[in-house]
Backbone:
C-alpha cells in the first residue's frame, strides 16, 4: 500500500471488485458477519462493483499523483477502497456509515474483510464538512448521489468550503429535465415529476422516492452562477450508460421495459452514436465539473 505522496496507478487495471471469485468470497464473509440474506448482500455488492467501473471512468482523466480525494456518498466504500488500493489518498463521506442499515453493515464487513482497507470514513452529511477538522480536497466527487441529497445547494456549498485552491468537483447523477426516473425505470410527467404518485400512490411512503430532489442541469447552472463557479457538462455519458445494457447484467436488470426497447431500436437503425452528441439538458444521466473561475482553469 502506498500513500498519496507516491505515484499511484491510474490505469483501469483489474481491481478486486472485478474479480468474481473475490466478490463471492466477500459475499460469503459479509453474510456470515452481518446476518443479512445472501440475495441482499449479493445485490448490493454486484451493484456497487458495477458502479466502481462507472466511477473509475468518470475520474480517469482527473486523477493525478499526490491529490487528496473526497468520495461523497461512498456507500459500502468499494470505489474508495479501489482508489486507495491504487495509491490515492481518499476520504469516504457516508452518513450512517457507523449505523445499522444494510449498506453500513456491509461496508463494515468490507473493512474487516480487507485489512489494508484504511480509508478514512466521515459519518455525517456533506453540510457538516469543515475545512479545519476534515482538511481540504483537490477532487470532490460523487456517483449517483446528488439526487438524494436534501438542501442540495447548502450541501454543495459545504463541499465548496473544503475544496482546495485549484481543486474541482466532479459529479454524475440523473438529469430530471429528461422525464425518466432511473431508480424505478419509469417515465415521469415532464416538468412535474411528483405527479406520478397519482398513479402510484405507494411511492409517497417509499424511502428512495422521498429522498429525490429532481436535480436538473438548470439547477446546477444556477448554483454555479450564484457562487461564482465555472461549470462544464461532460458529453457522451448517456451513450456510455445505455450501452451497459449489453455489458452489465445488474444494470440491465434494473432497467427493464422502455430503456432496452429504445436501445435495441436505435441499434438497428444505426442511431446509437447520436446519443454522444445530445445537448446536456436533453441527456440523462449528466456528468459535470465545478471549479472556481479565479483558479484560471478552463473547461
Residues:
Amino acid at each position: 500500500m502506498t500513500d498519496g505522496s507516491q505515484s499511484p496507478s491510474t490505469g483501469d487495471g483489474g481491481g478486486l471488485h472485478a474479480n468474481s471469485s473475490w466478490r463471492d468470497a466477500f459475499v460469503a464473509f459479509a453474510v456470515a458477519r452481518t446476518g443479512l440474506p445472501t440475495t441482499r448482500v449479493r445485490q448490493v455488492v454486484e451493484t456497487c462493483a458495477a458502479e466502481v467501473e462507472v466511477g473509475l471512468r468518470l475520474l480517469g482523466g482527473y486523477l493525478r499523483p499526490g491529490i487528496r480525494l473526497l468520495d461523497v456518498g461512498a456507500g459500502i466504500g468499494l470505489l474508495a477502497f479501489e482508489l486507495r488500493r491504487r495509491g490515492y489518498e481518499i476520504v469516504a463521506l457516508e452518513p450512517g456509515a457507523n449505523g445499522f442499515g444494510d449498506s453500513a453493515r456491509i461496508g463494515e464487513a468490507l473493512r474487516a474483510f480487507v485489512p489494508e482497507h484504511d480509508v478514512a470514513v466521515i459519518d455525517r452529511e456533506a453540510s457538516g464538512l469543515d475545512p479545519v477538522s476534515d482538511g481540504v480536497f483537490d477532487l470532490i466527487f460523487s456517483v449517483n448521489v446528488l439526487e438524494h441529497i436534501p438542501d442540495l445547494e447548502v450541501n454543495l456549498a459545504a463541499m465548496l468550503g473544503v475544496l482546495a485552491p485549484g481543486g474541482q468537483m466532479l459529479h454524475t447523477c440523473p438529469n430530471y429535465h429528461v422525464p425518466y426516473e432511473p431508480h424505478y425505470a419509469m417515465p415521469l410527467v415532464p416538468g412535474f415529476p411528483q405527479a406520478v404518485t397519482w398513479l402510484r400512490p405507494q411511492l409517497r411512503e417509499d424511502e428512495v422516492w422521498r429522498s429525490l430532489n429532481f436535480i436538473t442541469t438548470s439547477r446546477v447552472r444556477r448554483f454555479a452562477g450564484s457562487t461564482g463557479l465555472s461549470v462544464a457538462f461532460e458529453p457522451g455519458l448517456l451513450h456510455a450508460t445505455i450501452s451497459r445494457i449489453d455489458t452489465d447484467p445488474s444494470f440491465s436488470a434494473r432497467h427493464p421495459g422502455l430503456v432496452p426497447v429504445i436501445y435495441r431500436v436505435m441499434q438497428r437503425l444505426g442511431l446509437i452514436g447520436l446519443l454522444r452528441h445530445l445537448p446536456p439538458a436533453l441527456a440523462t444521466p449528466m456528468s459535470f465539473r465545478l471549479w472556481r473561475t479565479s483558479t484560471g482553469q478552463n473547461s
User: Anything to note?
Assistant: Residues 1-13, 295-299 have pLDDT under 50 and may be disordered. The domain at 16-187+214-294 is CATH 3.40.50.150 (Rossmann fold). The longest helix spans residues 38-59.
